[in-house]
Specification:
It contains eleven helices and five strands; from the N terminus they run H-H-H-H-E-E-E-H-E-H-E-H-H-H-H-H. By secondary structure, the protein is α/β, with parallel strands linked by helices. The protein has two domains: about 70 residues, no CATH class; about 160 residues, Nucleotidyltransferase, domain 5, CATH 3.30.420. Strands 3-2-1-4-5 form a five-stranded mixed sheet.
Length: about 260
């Protein structure tokens, strides 16, 4: 099902080389806010004689792909820097994920978490980690924080033929574009949904220590505590609601559109 803010994707005109943010803002200022409002050919020159027909053709192709819910086609038609606009249209197909590793030079996944339309899924090495590729393959849109640099390379090295999404939204780089740099924990605090008190200060090294403790004495260090902070700190579910990163993305997207 599509989100309520479908116009988010229809508001971008950055569909061709030579039509960037400045020209897009100029179109908006002239009252051309969505694809449907781009003038017909008989209306005269809009951007340039060279680009106008190309823009209309690209808008038509994008609209056709959007009507058919063809996320793969949209990912090819729309530049990667604007893929975040696709989220509201395909939110129910999104998978938010995070991975912890042993922390070695060749990181081996130990615990992974996936939050999708069915809820939270936890995958633990030597237990059910082999099911992770199948779970990820069910979603065409992935959302992570620094996942394009760390999580996906680690998973691709560990699993043979690890799946690839049609679109992968990495919040780290999206937020940096809009002046919100730093780590995920700091961003969460600035956006008003920081982690609970008992998890403040817990970091990635703690996840490694807990994993090693679990391997040494699983009865003492239960599975629930082993997957902290990877799961609970990153995927808090207040009242059964969406994950921290899901709320973080929605808040960021709203900020970007304002």
């Amino acid at each position: 099902m599509r989100g309520d803010c479908g116009s988010m994707i229809r508001r971008t005109f950055q569909l061709l080389t030579g039509l960037g943010p400045w020209r897009e803002r100029d179109l908006w200022a002239r009252g051309i806010s969505t694809w449907d409002q781009f003038p017909k050919a008989e209306s005269g020159v809009v951007v340039s004689r060279k680009l106008d027909d190309q823009i209309r053709d690209r808008i038509g192709a994008c609209q056709l792909a959007l009507d058919g819910c063809d996320l793969a086609a949209l990912s090819r038609l729309i530049p990667a820097r604007e893929h975040w606009r696709l989220y509201n249209e395909f939110a129910e197909e999104a998978a938010f994920f995070d991975v912890e590793t042993e922390g070695t030079l060749s990181p081996t996944p130990t615990v992974a978490s996936v939050f999708d339309r069915e809820g939270l899924h936890v995958f633990i090495r030597d237990h059910n980690l082999d099911r992770l590729p199948e779970a990820m393959a069910r979603s065409r849109l992935w959302v992570s924080f620094n996942g394009s640099c760390f999580d996906v390379p680690a998973l691709s090295s560990h699993f043979e033929n690890f799946p690839k999404p049609s679109v992968h939204l990495d919040l780290r780089f999206l937020c940096r574009r809009f002046g919100e740099g730093g780590g995920l924990k700091g961003l969460e605090d600035r956006l008003g949904f920081g982690r609970p008190p008992h998890l403040r200060g817990v970091n990635g090294w703690d996840a490694i220590v807990l994993w090693r403790a679990y391997q040494t004495s699983p009865r003492v260090c239960s599975t629930a505590s082993t997957i902290m902070p990877s799961i609970s700190s990153r995927w808090t579910l207040p009242g059964g609601g969406s994950s921290t990163e899901a709320r973080f993305f929605t808040t960021s997207a709203s900020f970007c559109c304002s």
